[in-house]
Write a structure and sequence with these properties.
Chain B: Belongs to the iron/manganese superoxide dismutase family. Chain B: Its EC number is 1.15.1.1. Chain B: Destroys radicals which are normally produced within the cells and which are toxic to biological systems. Chain B: It is an enzyme of class 1 (oxidoreductase). Chain B: This is Superoxide dismutase. The complex is a heterodimer. Chain A is of the alpha+beta class. Chain A contains ten helices and five strands, in the order ββαααααααβββααα. Chain A has two domains: 117 residues, no CATH class; 104 residues, minor pseudopilin epsh fold. In chain A, the strands form two sheets. Chain A has a three-stranded antiparallel beta sheet. A two-stranded parallel ribbon of chain A has the order 1-2. In chain A, α2 crosses α3 and α3 runs antiparallel to α5. The longest helix of chain A has 27 residues. The N and C termini of chain A lie far apart (41 Å). The radius of gyration of chain B is 17 Å and the shape is globular. A three-stranded antiparallel beta sheet of chain B has the order 2-1-3, with helices on both faces. Helices cover 45% and strands 9% of the residues of chain B. Chain B is built from eight helices and three strands; from the N terminus they run αααααβββααα. The relative contact order of chain B is 0.18. Classes of the chains: A alpha+beta, B mainly alpha. Chains A and B meet through α1, α2 and α3 of A and α1, α5 and β2 of B.
């Protein structure tokens, strides 16, 4: 008897990500709610998650055809379109290797989850979901948050927009927002992201950070992300994260940020 | 009195082709250098009084009791300074040290993991499986048995009440992206496989002996 799993993640709808899976026999449904405070845990470090995935992927293939096939979204522009701020080499690696890797691992994890009702296994796959589901979500948002110069990249929001008014209310002005986001992003130890997010409970904009690929969920809707994993900048900027953060604003697609903001308020 | 960036006993080019010279230079002068500067800043700053005069090892062991205002800084930068100081010593140009564990160390590895190959496989898995930034370690526990663990960011197994599995490190591998990205990009498993070529097994044997007497690795930690 197979257990059907319905995955419902608060706040993920905003980025267009919604995943429902009907179990083969719907004797019971389990709801997994990912909250932004969910820690990645140490399991991955010992290889437990990988071992589990490997052991079960055999049975998953044997028992049913793969029924999860989340796809890597296309970039809305060419790999060289964000030069010179972000090199085409970085964009290509970031999209086809890192983001694709999250998508592949996410599919594997979900297929394994759907193939078993062994609760210890299901629970042990929690970190794989956060790592890879979060990675997929975060990067899907990121690609639309950026745009080539001349195609929206760096074009500031106009004064009478809802987003600009909210930025002025919450931070005073745009340059203060940028400065605060850069400070937050520069201060992240190790890998992670800084986000401009809407706190939907308090109806205000906040800057939040997340370690690793922890997604922005729960009461927050992510609007604009700064990826400070070293893979996002190292080939071009080496250790100079500050220079990368200074430059990124030239290609921020404010129209996308405004669209996300308005959708989140609705 | 403040910490100084320790010299590496071999050239930046010496670990080629396994670890490239540019990575070595940036890793040492920029990343490790920054950890040293930031640690000094915390200790010289207004909250650093209780840390003055402590050894680098003591700073790591006692991260959990550093003053609130600087605890994160001390954890990240004290850990970073210790980890990298240790890391340079467990590597050597290929062919200049024993190419494999021998003697008591070999016996301990075989007894804890079955074989040297089985140990490497488990270590590789831990290093590849550490999500985000961090380190993989071979450590000795209180019963003198060897075990493998990994830590996030700049944590290390000396950090009591911080590390999941505390112990005495005798071998460690940096899996932050800055340690391998220029040459290997996203291909971390390839970096890990290549790194075995430059492991300094004589250093590891020395640290193993120190650990059997209950000591953490004895490192040269220069002061300014």
């Amino acid at each position: 008897m197979q257990l059907g799993l319905r995955l419902l993640v608060n706040g993920w709808k905003q980025s267009g990500f919604q995943h429902f899976h009907q179990g083969r026999s719907a004797s019971s449904l389990e709801q997994v709610r990912c909250v932004h405070s969910l820690r990645t845990g140490e399991a991955a470090g010992s290889g437990t998650v990988d071992e589990t995935l490997r052991a079960l992927s055999v049975s998953a293939t044997a028992s049913a055809s793969a029924n999860v096939n989340i796809q890597l979204p296309d970039l809305p522009y060419d790999y060289d379109a964000l030069e010179p701020v972000i090199s085409s080499e970085i964009m290509r690696l970031h999209h086809t290797k890192h983001h694709q890797g999250y998508v592949n691992n996410l599919n594997n994890a979900l297929n394994t989850i759907h193939s078993t009702d062994h609760v210890p296994t299901l629970v042990s796959l929690q970190s794989a979901l956060i790592f890879n589901g979060g990675g997929h979500l975060n990067h899907s948002i990121l690609w639309t948050n950026l745009a080539p110069v001349g195609k929206g990249g760096g074009e500031l929001p106009s004064k009478d927009t809802a987003l600009m008014k909210a930025i002025e209310n919450n931070f005073g002005d745009l340059s203060t927002l940028m400065s605060l986001m850069n400070t937050a992003a520069a201060g992240i130890q190790g890998s992670g992201w800084a986000w401009l997010a809407l706190n939907r409970n308090l109806r205000r904009l906040e800057i939040v950070t997340r370690p690793n690929q922890d997604p922005v969920v729960g009461a927050y809707t992510p609007l604009l992300g700064l990826d400070v994993w070293e893979h996002a900048y190292y080939i071009q900027y080496k250790n100079d994260r500050a220079a990368y953060l200074k430059n990124i604003w030239q290609i921020v697609h404010w129209k996308d940020v405004a669209n996300r903001y308005e959708a989140a308020l609705a | 009195m403040s910490f100084a960036l320790p010299a590496i006993s071999y050239d930046y080019t010496a670990l080629e082709p396994y670890i490239d010279a540019m990575t070595m230079q940036i890793h040492h002068t920029k990343h490790h250098g920054t950890y040293v500067n930031n640690l000094n800043g915390a200790i010289q700053g207004e909250h650093g009084g209780s840390l003055k005069g402590l050894s680098l090892e003591a700073i790591c062991r006692n991260v959990h009791s550093a003053p609130d205002a600087i605890r994160a800084t001390v954890r990240n930068n004290g850990g970073g300074h210790w980890n990298h100081t240790f890391f340079w010593t467990i590597m050597a140009p290929s062919g200049t040290s024993s190419s494999a564990p021998n003697g008591a160390l070999k016996g301990a590895i075989e007894s804890s993991f079955g074989s040297v190959d089985a140990f490497k496989e488990q270590f590789n898995k831990a290093a590849a499986g550490r999500f985000g930034s961090g380190w993989a370690w071979l450590c000795m526990d209180q019963s003198k048995k060897l075990f493998i663990t990994s830590t996030p960011n700049q944590d290390n197994p000396l950090m009591a009440n911080v590390a999941d599995q505390p112990g005495l490190p005798i071998l460690g591998l940096d899996v932050w992206e800055h340690a391998y990205y220029l040459k290997y990009q996203n291909r971390r498993p390839e970096y890990i496989a290549a790194w075995w070529n430059v492991v300094n097994w004589d250093s590891v044997a020395k640290y193993y002996d120190e650990a059997t007497s209950g000591k953490a690795p004895v490192l040269e930690v220069p002061l300014q």
